[in-house]
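Dear Dr. L.,

I hope this message finds you well. Following up on our conversation about the binding site, I have prepared a predicted three-dimensional model of the protein together with nicotinamide-adenine-dinucleotide. For your records, I am including the exact sequence and ligand specification that went into the calculation, followed by the structure tokens. Please feel free to forward this to your student if that is useful.
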Amino acid sequence: MCTPEITEPPANGLSYVHPGPDSPWNTYLRQIDRVMPHLGRLSRWAETLRRPKRCLIVDVPIEMDDGRIAHFEGYRVQHSLTRGPGKGGVRYHPDVRLEEVMALAAWMSIKNAAVNLPFGGAKGGIRVAPRELSLKELEKLTRRYTSEIGLLIGPQQDIPAPDVNTNAQVMAWMMDTYSMNVGATTTGVVTGKPLQLGGSLGRVKATGRGVFVCGREAARRIALPLEGARVAVQGFGNVGSAAAELFQQAGGRIVAVQDHTGTVWREAGLEVAELMLHVQRTGGVGGFRAAQGMEAEAFWDVPCDVLIPAALEGQITAERAQRLHARLVLEGANGPTLPAADDVLTGRGVLVVPDVICNAGGVTVSYFEWVQDFSSFFWSEDEVNQRLDRILVQALQHIWETAEQHGGWRQMSLRTATFAVACERILSAREMRGLYP
Ligand code: NAD
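The resulting structure of the complex is given below.
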């Protein structure tokens, strides 16, 4: 067991977290610092954004297939409920920890406000290596976790959704467990459910589609044609594979893909559908025969026009930001770019479309799903996709104009512009509501 070294005092005096300098929560706090000068009188309320409203830590014990009793640590964090119920995914990963979930919850608050969805921000997770569990163990884990966080979630309180290593099946178990506990089928308690249980058409690929829509709009603004554009993608799961597919359909060449099993490269472009089949068969991109393999670190040196980090946070360090070739970075993942790297990229004239707008397609269609569940009236996939496109185009336009008012994206990054739009919405709502009691 190694104890994490405490490199700085607890961030803004919260006694229960000790994040390292490049930890997600510290990254988030630095992003908030950057936007404060632009918030005028609302900065009086800024401390609201620096503290999660609630953090729940739960023990999740299950009996394993071999009869052992295993204990896992689970979390649900509600960062802000000012603009509506909490909304945010649930992550299963061996590195999940409280301060990471806090950051992910906070980014959900910003994201939902940036797109103007009537939600606050929340996130959950379990520290577990899900690939080491059988399906039965995974179901037990999910059901016990759902019961443990049952006092926080609900269709009007906080609505979980899939994130890394969770999917529609996990959402079905969560919905069923919650429904059993409250004694009524409650489809609106989670989103990202199977279609047969109140899911929405278009939800599975919505985040990747959102990355594509943001990429299309941003590329147009910097005169980067998508036809023939070379695209590199890190992470080939739900987000990365759907985005890659749409870029390929728009005439782009997917030159490199990296996941936890390897990195594959083909100058002429990888065939996305074939790569998806290979991943389905083998569990990862490693060993894909229609491409060359390469060292993981070499991924960042691949000549490309568009880079899509769609795996985990903290991937684009200042050093990698100096090396990468892309003109456009589309953050499919949450928090993939460290603050120091942000400055390097802006300095080099690389446009970054930040996570808090770029991957908002998923939560936008989750919002559609929630609305459809309430009205028990379901939309066609075309309708879902068209509404998603419209909402993201409008949100990005507003963010772009905000940056323009401050001299353009080289002066005010799209990240700071997005935070400015979102924080203004959250804090003015806070001010109008006032403090209780
Ligand atoms: P996923 O589990 O479907 O896929 C994750 C991918 O990342 C896999 O291809 C995996 O192999 C890869 N990966 C994991 N560790 C890696 C490593 N060390 N190096 C390279 N690749 C690695 O997850 P997802 O749903 O696609 O989520 C990916 C990112 O997008 C996460 O940051 C998540 O928070 C964010 N996100 C997801 C959604 C959604 O709707 N699923 C919405 C918004 C944001």
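In brief: Residues 162-165, 207, 234-240, 258-260, 284, 310-312, 332-334, 359, 362 surround nicotinamide-adenine-dinucleotide (CB under 6 Å).

With kind regards,
A. P.
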